[in-house]
Amino acid sequence: MLDTLARPLRDARISVTDRCNFRCVYCMPKEVFGRDFAFAPREELLTFEEITRVARILTDLGVEKVRLTGGEPLLRRDLERLVAQLAAIEGLRDIALTTNGSLLTRLKSRLLADAGLRRVTISLDSLDDETFRRMNDVDSPVERVLDAIEGAADAGLGPIKLDMVVMRGLNATSVVDVARRFRNMAHIVRFIEYMDVGNTNGWHLQDVVPGREIVELIAREWPVEPVEANYFGEVASRYRYVDGAGEFGVITSVTKPFCQSCTRVRLSATGEVYTCLFAGKGRDLRSLLRNGTPDSEIRAVLANIWQKRDDRYSEIRSEATAALKKVEMSHIGG
């Protein structure tokens, strides 16, 4: 099934909660998501059974991979129960999780792996503890995340992808340190350009460190060369160290958009479907799930949404589009 730009539906990003225990400056700034911020009431969140039902229908439409996101997905109690339900869906070949790592204990990693989780992506914005605490803005230490990386690897959830959002003036000086730490390891660091997701993170183009500059910083230390994508729709441009010490990726949504190969649909924790990370509004599915609508009709709704999809925000980004009302990343995940 293709959209209007001939892009197939292959991936689903499913948010299980809009809450997070971090207040990262590029995602949920504390001055907006403060103590009085009204998150979605529990009864408005999709149940695990409702999420599984949507995932099963999406798989029938061509989805092969599901990634669980948030907010911070590990704030959702007994998440391994959802993973087990998803793992039972015939045709769904990959289940992954994106987390900030602060709640990913060794026990939780084992429970998730045993339930059927295949891979995990962990956010790591700096190895410098002071910088890391400044980025998450809740004084959470980087050592906790490093422990989570080790525990997840021991549980078989690798190779682990490590996401670093690079912001000029905050953590750009940490790029080489992070690259050095994970050279000669199976983990793959992905350096991400700071994006204008939502309308609350104070995004300015001058704060973006272009992917080209990130590669140049690393190449000054070790020779690197580009590598072909693993599959159509892979968001990161791949590079490997010439000396054989592994690889890293760069996600360039701002300076080198990849809209033409985007194969992702997003489901919010409260049941709205979005066809772009930068979308302004979604289509409500929760009411259909709860009013007795049969799977065949929900399938038709989802198929219609995808077949009419024409999103390419990053390709047409301008001062005008940057000011448009957009859903917050904490609502639909990254």
3D architecture notes:
By secondary structure, the protein is α/β, with parallel strands linked by helices. Helices cover 30% and strands 17% of the residues. α1 (48-60) runs parallel beside α2. It has one domain: Aldolase class I (TIM Barrel), CATH 3.20.20.70. The chain contains twelve helices and twelve strands. A twelve-stranded mixed beta sheet has the order 7-8-9-6-5-4-3-2-1-10-11-12. α6 (175-182) links the parallel β5 and β6 (188-193). The chain has helices spanning 48-60, 79-87, 106-115, 129-136, 142-154, 175-182, 211-219, 286-290, 295-307, 313-316, 319-322, 329-332; strands at 11-15, 65-69, 94-99, 119-123, 161-166, 188-193, 224-227, 237-241, 247-251, 264-267, 272-274, 283-284.
